[in-house]
Design goal:
Blueprint (H helix, E strand, L loop, with lengths): L1 E7 L4 H12 L4 E7 L4 E6 L4 H15 L4 E4 L1
Antiparallel strand pairs: 1-3, 1-4, 2-3
Length: 73
Amino acid sequence: MKKKFKLDELDCAVCGAKMEDAIRKIPGVNDVQVNFLLQKLTLDADGARFDEIVRLAQAACAKIEPDCKIVTA
């Protein structure tokens, strides 16, 4: 399943790259792209576990940039 999300409070392109790397390591993630300029996250992951993967991705993002939130686009 592939879905796009808006990123609120993503302040740094380097942080976006770190988030991308962290999310990519989550089991079930096929591909992830963070676009700093557009403040977008594109996630391609296992559809059966998609909601769980989104929660894990949010946790990974919060470790890197605590104010950043993943919201439905």
